[in-house]
Amino acid sequence: MTSTPWTPPVWYPGELDTAGPEHLDPGFVTGFDRKQGYPDPAEDLAALRAAGVGPDATVIDLGAGTGRFAFAAAREFGRVVAVDVSPAMVAHLRERTAGDAERSGGTGGRVPIVVRGGFLSYRHEGPQADAVHTRHALHQLPDAWKAVALTRIAGMLRPGGILRLRDLILDFRPAEAEERLNAWLAEAPDPETDPGVDPTARYVRADYIEHLRSEHSTFRYLQEAMLDDAGFEILDADFPHPVFGAYTCRRR
């Protein structure tokens, strides 16, 4: 058994309220991978391998979405648990799992275990995991609850276990925020000025603005302080852009 239902205290944030309403919409879920640009999980899988996560490992994917990472990881690692708070995402994951099982004819094609839960509500049971992966999901929580979530993730991992965290994180100081964020918005495609831009096929300026207004990207120096406080050593940090980056961390 991987998890049991758990009702958080009433003073916890409502995870469905923080998930972003579009992620709860089955119509949005159907086109999610397209809008995301069909992200390739190869880099994150390689980071886990390089950090020593082996083929028998148990890996938890928090905020699994449509399962691009989780299904690829299930072919590589011993046990993968795909966790998402959105009922629409979980339904999609379970449908995909059933389809993969049917196509394999019950011959043992490996698929992830699908669990509905979030950073604050998922409870891992059994031996601690060897790795946790999360991509572009932690920013749904305000900073105080990010810190709680990272502490909970550390508790899911065995000592020496690996966290692969990819997210929208601000790699500049607060005094630079106006300049850097205006520059980011200037990069964004905008259907209002370019009718050829399809907002269902990519993120556009309005999406960037909505992210900044209603979600919770944090500054890099605060993110790294939270990781340290939760008990993680940062092995690698890669920021190809001032607004997003990835970490590979080891639980002390």
Describe the structure.
The protein has 10 helices and 9 strands. It has helices at residues 15-18, 26-30, 32-36, 42-50, 68-74, 87-103, 143-156, 177-187, 205-214, 220-230, and strands spanning 58-62, 79-84, 113-116, 129-135, 157-167, 169-170, 218-219, 232-241, 244-251. The strands form 2 sheets. The chain has a 7-stranded mixed sheet with strand order 3-2-1-4-5-9-8, with helices on both faces. Strands 6-7 form a two-stranded parallel sheet.
Q: Would you kindly provide a brief summary of this structure?
A:
By secondary structure, this protein is α/β, with parallel strands linked by helices.
Q: Please state the CA-atom Rg, rounded to the nearest Å.
A: 18 Å
Span from first to last CA?
Answer: 26 Å
Mean pLDDT, as a whole number?
93
Low-confidence stretches: none
The helix fraction, in percent, is 25-40%
- Largest sheet report: 7 strands, mixed
Q: Say how many strands there are.
A: 9
Query: What string gives the helices and strands in order?
Result: HHHHEHEHEEHEEHHEHEE
Structural class: alpha/beta
Q: Which word captures the global form?
A: globular
- Please indicate the percent range of residues in DSSP E strands (runs of 2 or more): 15-25%
Q: What is the spatial order of strands in the main beta sheet?
A: 3-2-1-4-5-9-8
Number of helices: 10
